[in-house]
């Protein structure tokens, strides 16, 4: 109980004033939890405010089209979150009459809602006694109790959830869950935490044993794949261009991009221009071609690094289904393409 009391006391004095904390309405809580997966609060906050302004209720989100949702999500990454968010909003609005499931087990059945998100909504909205376990919780508990369980193992979540459940005051699960996550985000940070000002500096086992920087233990290294993207930024005699939708499964599903040539390695001008002349834009003659960026832009995703080059391709005549610069900006793009359009077109 000493741990819980100290933790909650710290939280009440240090917590950030975040809009989704001032309500028990599951809609904004769900929205914030989906947005903050793999995302820091500072980065996610403008998106949360944009979404709640554009879609004040789950019905508004459900009625939006997917491209509207993806456009607002643009830049937040992990776009499957946005697509699942939209589908789940439609399910809640149209199948469940706008009423969110009220238990952890029923929340788990929603598309895009995993154990952590279900636990967060169940405890914050309905005060269900269920612990949240995210990276912050792994870190705080492993350090405080000196646990060297490998958190990359599937069994780790059960072990930490059981411990969190034991520590959790059963009459106040919501505050405990908020507190332990906030403590991990603000105080018990991954690198170089300021243990001198920590409320647990007399009882933290890792601090006593000088092991703070060794915990939590995580063994599994993600293998990163390198990919080489060459984007053809076309301009016809009317300065219209063409884009395409990424319909295949994988990164950036249902977002838009310029015509793409993916290569095995970074290719030079001669190789790319030869391929463009031979294989692309057969209905038009390529008048000229040049590089927008001599050095590849390296866009890092969690599991792959994209080496991106943009090529300006000037075509004779007009292209079918060409779009002008203003229309171009209305489509949802991956952030690296959006930034290129804003800066270079």
Tell me what you see in this structure.
The protein is an alpha+beta fold. It has two domains: 2-214, Hypothetical protein, domain 2 (Endonuclease III, domain 1, Orthogonal Bundle), CATH 1.10.340; 225-344, Nucleoside Triphosphate Pyrophosphohydrolase. 44% of the residues lie in helices and 12% in strands. The strands form two sheets. Strands 1, 4, 5, 6 and 7 form a five-stranded mixed beta sheet that branches. Strands 2-3 form a two-stranded antiparallel ribbon. The mean pLDDT is 95.
Structure at a glance:
By secondary structure, the chain is an alpha+beta fold.
In one word, what is the shape? elongated
Largest sheet: 5 strands, mixed
H/E element order: HHHHHHHHHHHHEEEEHEEEHH
CATH class of the largest domain: Mainly Alpha
The gyration radius over C-alpha positions equals 24 Å
Helix content: 40-55%
Cα distance, first to last residue? Answer: 60 Å
Query: Helix/strand-derived class?
Result: alpha+beta
Low-confidence stretches: none
What is the β-strand count? 7
What amount of the residues lies in strands? 5-15%
Supply the CATH superfamily name of the largest domain. Hypothetical protein, domain 2
As for the CATH topology of the largest domain, it is Endonuclease III, domain 1
Work out the count of structural domains.
Answer: 2
Mean pLDDT: 95
Count helical runs: 15
């Amino acid at each position: 109980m000493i741990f819980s009391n100290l933790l909650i006391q710290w939280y009440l004095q240090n917590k950030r004033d975040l809009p989704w904390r001032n309500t028990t309405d599951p809609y904004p809580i769900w929205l914030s939890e989906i947005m903050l997966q793999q995302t820091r609060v500072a980065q996610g906050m403008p998106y949360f405010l944009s979404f709640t302004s554009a879609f004040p209720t789950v019905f508004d989100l459900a009625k939006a089209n997917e491209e509207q949702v993806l456009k607002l999500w643009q830049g937040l990454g992990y776009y499957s979150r946005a697509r699942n968010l939209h589908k789940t909003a439609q399910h809640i609005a149209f199948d469940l009459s706008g009423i969110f499931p009220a238990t952890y087990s029923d929340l788990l059945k929603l598309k895009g809602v995993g154990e952590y998100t279900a636990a967060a909504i169940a405890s914050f909205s309905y005060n269900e006694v269920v612990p949240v376990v995210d990276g912050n919780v792994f870190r705080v508990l492993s350090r405080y109790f000196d646990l060297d369980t490998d958190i990359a193992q599937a069994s780790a979540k059960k072990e930490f959830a059981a411990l969190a459940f034991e520590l959790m005051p059963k009459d106040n699960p919501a505050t405990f869950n908020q507190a332990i996550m906030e403590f991990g985000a603000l105080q018990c940070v991954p690198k170089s935490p300021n243990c001198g000002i920590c409320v647990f500096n007399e009882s933290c086992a890792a601090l006593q044993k000088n092991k703070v920087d060794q915990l939590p233990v995580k063994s599994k290294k993600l293998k990163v794949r390198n990919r080489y993207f060459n984007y053809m930024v076309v301009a016809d005699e009317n300065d219209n261009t063409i884009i395409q939708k990424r319909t295949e499964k994988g990164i950036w599903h249902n977002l838009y991009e310029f015509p793409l040539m993916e290569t095995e390695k970074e290719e030079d001008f001669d190789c790319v221009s030869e391929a463009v002349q031979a294989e692309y834009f057969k209905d038009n003659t390529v008048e000229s071609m040049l590089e927008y960026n001599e050095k590849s832009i390296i866009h890092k995703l969690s599991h792959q690094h994209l080496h991106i080059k943009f090529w300006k391709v000037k075509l004779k005549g007009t292209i079918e289904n060409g779009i002008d610069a203003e229309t171009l900006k209305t489509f949802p793009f991956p952030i690296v393409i959006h930034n290129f359009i804003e800066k270079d077109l």
